[in-house]
């Protein structure tokens, strides 16, 4: 299947999705959303894929939601279509997804990167929620996910002033997991994804689910949820294999059973 706004490449068990609207700095329009939902649905169902890397161009991961597409919307249109709610499907993708960010990740672009499980940034990356400069506010999770990632002070600063944050600041603030040279960005993200895809996919899925839960519930509920899932892994062959391989000083062979 070919897409108008996305490129897909597979390297072993890793799928690389590249946002591809260079003429608009990868602005996220309704076609990007429809194609992302379609493609992620396919990758979800594909047992050959263990992890995904989402990236953009050197100049822009994505410069936001498509301003030209939404410019003439009225409140009633936005409300009745529940504008941007479709992105919840992207955030709800069940396999690990790493954002490899170079250049601008602004507005919806920053929000899309934050829907991924973690962000690896090139030194050139710039993050921001400049919606305030357009007379609106973030609408794809920016006020919520950014605040959870960097805390109230910096989230307020970014959302209220619309200023951009460079990769170094984003890493110290906790938004970004690693910062690398631009030339190494994709290789670093793919290597991380390959590593993840080599582990027991049951345990990997549970890590994603439990860490994500930390943002949804209390500590005691989260700890209980974690412990129960941890217990359940003793019903898997992969746990037997992983621990046997350790004691036998060999590499484990996980079968996802
Ligand atoms: C539509 C966009 C766009 C966007 C860039 N373009 N960002 N089109 N939506 N978000 C288009 C430009 O119009 C231009 O097309 C082409 O991409 C190149 O952009 P330039 O502005 O010429 O590039 P440059 O001078 O290098 O400036 C880069 C930039 C600037 C600083 C990133 O493009 C910019 O400020 N973009 C908007 C960033 C933004 O405000 N994002 C938040 C969007 S709102 P033409 O055809 O003119 O050459 C959002 C919120 C979601 O995401 C929820 C709200 C309700």
Automatic annotation (TrEMBL):
Entry's Gene Ontology molecular function annotations: enoyl-CoA hydratase activity
Gene Ontology terms: biological process: fatty acid beta-oxidation
Keywords: Fatty acid metabolism, Lipid metabolism, Lyase
Catalytic activity: a 4-saturated-(3S)-3-hydroxyacyl-CoA = a (3E)-enoyl-CoA + H2O; a (3S)-3-hydroxyacyl-CoA = a (2E)-enoyl-CoA + H2O
Family of the protein in this entry: Belongs to the enoyl-CoA hydratase/isomerase family.
Statement: the UniProt record of this protein carries the keyword Lipid metabolism: yes
Pfam families (alphabetical): ECH_1 (PF00378)
UniProt EC number: 4.2.1.17
The protein's name: enoyl-CoA hydratase
SUPFAM superfamilies: ClpP/crotonase (SSF52096)
Organism domain of life: Bacteria
Enzyme class: lyase
Function summary: Could possibly oxidize fatty acids using specific components.
Organism annotation: Ciceribacter selenitireducens ATCC BAA-1503
């Amino acid at each position: 299947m070919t897409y108008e706004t996305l490129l897909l490449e597979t390297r072993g068990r890793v799928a690389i999705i590249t946002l591809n609207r260079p003429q608009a700095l990868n602005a996220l329009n309704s076609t990007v959303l429809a194609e992302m939902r379609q493609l992620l649905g396919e990758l979800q169902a594909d047992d050959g894929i263990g992890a995904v890397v989402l990236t953009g161009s050197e100049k822009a991961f994505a410069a936001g939601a498509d301003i030209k597409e939404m410019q003439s919307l009225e409140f009633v249109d936005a409300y009745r279509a529940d504008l941007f709610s479709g992105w919840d499907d992207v955030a709800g993708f069940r396999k690990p997804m790493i954002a490899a960010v170079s250049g601008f990740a602004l507005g919806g672009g920053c929000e899309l990167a934050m829907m991924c499980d973690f962000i690896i940034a090139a030194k050139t990356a710039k993050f921001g929620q400049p919606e305030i400069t357009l007379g609106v506010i973030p609408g794809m999770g920016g006020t919520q996910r950014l605040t959870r990632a960097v805390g109230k002070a910096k989230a307020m600063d970014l959302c209220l002033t619309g200023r951009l944050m460079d990769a170094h600041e984003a890493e110290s603030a906790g938004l970004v997991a690693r910062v690398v040279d631009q030339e190494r960005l994709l290789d670093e993200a793919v290597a991380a994804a390959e590593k993840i895809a080599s582990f027991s996919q049951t345990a990997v899925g549970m890590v994603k689910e439990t860490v994500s839960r930390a943002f949804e519930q209390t500590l005691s509920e989260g700890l209980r949820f974690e412990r129960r899932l941890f217990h359940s892994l003793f019903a898997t062959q992969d746990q037997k294999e992983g621990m046997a391989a350790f004691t036998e000083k060999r590499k484990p062979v996980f079968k996802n059973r």
